[in-house]
Every structure is written in structure tokens, then in C-alpha cells.
Specification:
The protein is of the alpha/beta class and about 240 residues long. The protein is about 35% helix and about 25% strand. It contains seven helices and eleven strands. A nine-stranded mixed beta sheet has the order 2-1-3-4-11-10-9-6-7, sandwiched between helices. Strands 5-8 form a two-stranded antiparallel sheet. Helix 2 packs parallel to helix 3. The two termini are about 10 Å apart.
């Protein structure tokens, strides 16, 4: 069973589910989705499901995050971090294969000892050229990809410092940390490996404010970043 921890509270949550299913050739029974924001989903419940999870995906959060200044949204972020911190400790201590996507990538970096900030010059929306580091090119999750490929990005905050024991796997022109690996099998990617171009445009209809960070998207680019999610599901 692949445990997917979601953080979304609007209709993008259902869109995220759809995109993950569409990206990989797995049945509905292969996944369990749990929304961390639900008051009915406790840390203890998540920890219990970790006992039988083959791997874990931490999803995104379009309606808020590390960049927020609104007191209510800041409180929501603290709620997420406090609720998920014991989960991340178990993922680390038990070497459970983990993939953090966008906000999930930031949460992993933060709770494992890195740093996340809201830096407008690093924010992106659209299609970005992703460049693998020498370490990234050798990584089992990425070695089937070319050194440079295109992926969907949409974020306001960014990881600026990696945790100790983490290796930089990928970067883009604006964002110096597009992907990292912690220890052997905990991964974070700022890009969205679950999205194709159609999915991206649907997602941006929900969050038009992200478009001020537009990268002048070329809809004809081949999006190879989805292979990251496929590899994670099938190889780890």
C-alpha cells in the first residue's frame, strides 16, 4: 500500500488524487489517501498506517504555505508541522521510501533540519528546465532521465538549505534546490511529477495568483518529470 498524505483543503485535493492515479499504472486499492488537515485524522492514525505502508508520498498545498503572513494560514502551517513531525521521524528512523512533492518537499527539508523561505526571485510557475547534478544523474530514481529535462513547477516558497546527510539531485535556473535525497530513500522535489500540461492549466485556474511567477510556459515541451513519480512507485 502506498500512503499519500495530503494537505489541501480545497478542490485541488481531488485534482491531486486524479493526477497521481493518472500518472502511474496502479489500481485504486494500491493507494490510501489521508488528509493531514482533517481533525479526524490524528498523528496516531497516520503512524498506524505507516506500519503497513510500502512507501509514502507527501503532497502539495496550493492555498497556503511557508510564504503566508495571514495569521490563520500561519496557524494552519504550524498545525501541519506539529502533526507531521512524528511521522517524518518514523520515516527517517525506519528508512521508509518517501517522496515529498512541492509543499511536501519543503516540509521534509524543514523537519529534517533544512531551511525554507519565501523568496520571490526563486518562485516559479509553468515549465522549468530541470538539470541533474552528477549525484542526481547516478541516483536510481533519476538515472533513466536525461541530464536536462522539463517539469511542471508552481511554488512561492523554496528550500534554500538542505538537511545534513542530504544530497542535491536537481536544480533549475530560478530554484537552486529542485530535488534532494536524504539518507538512502527519502526524496523531496520542488517540481510536480504528477502533473502534465493539461493538469497544470487546470491547477492554475484554482490559483491564478501563481501566474505572476510565470516562466512563459511552452505547451509543446515534452514533460519528462512524470517519470520521477513512476520510478518512485515502481522501483522503491
Amino acid at each position: 500500500m502506498i500512503l499519500v498524505l495530503q494537505f489541501r483543503t480545497d478542490q485541488s485535493g481531488w485534482h491531486e488524487v486524479k493526477c497521481i492515479y493518472d500518472s502511474v499504472n496502479k489500481s485504486y486499492n494500491d493507494f490510501l489517501f489521508m488528509n493531514v488537515m482533517s481533525p479526524f485524522v490524528t498523528t496516531e492514525m497516520i503512524l498506524d498506517k505507516l506500519k503497513v505502508a510500502k512507501s509514502v508520498i507527501l503532497g502539495g498545498l496550493g492555498e497556503g504555505g511557508y510564504e503566508d503572513v495571514d495569521p490563520h494560514k500561519i496557524k494552519n502551517l504550524q498545525y501541519i508541522l506539529e502533526k507531521i513531525a512524528p511521522v517524518v521521524n518514523i520515516l527517517k528512523d525506519n528508512s521508509i521510501p518517501t517522496l515529498g512533492i512541492c509543499f511536501g518537499h519543503q516540509v521534509l527539508a524543514d523537519l529534517l533540519g533544512g531551511e525554507v523561505i519565501a523568496e520571490p526571485s526563486m518562485a516559479e510557475a509553468g515549465v522549468a528546465e530541470i538539470i541533474l547534478t552528477p549525484v542526481g544523474k547516478k541516483d536510481p530514481l533519476l538515472q533513466s532521465l536525461p541530464k536536462s529535462f522539463y517539469g511542471i513547477v508552481s511554488h512561492k516558497s523554496s528550500v534554500i538549505r538542505l538537511p545534513e546527510e542530504a544530497s542535491l539531485l536537481a536544480y533549475s535556473d530560478r530554484c537552486p534546490i529542485q530535488g534532494f535525497r536524504y539518507q538512502s530513500n527519502i526524496y523531496g522535489f520542488q517540481l510536480h511529477p504528477e502533473l502534465n500540461m493539461q493538469d497544470y492549466h487546470s491547477r492554475m485556474q484554482l490559483y491564478p495568483e501563481y501566474m505572476k511567477h510565470n516562466l512563459k510556459t511552452n505547451d509543446n515541451q515534452e514533460i519528462l518529470a512524470q517519470q520521477i513519480l513512476i520510478n518512485f512507485i515502481n522501483k522503491l
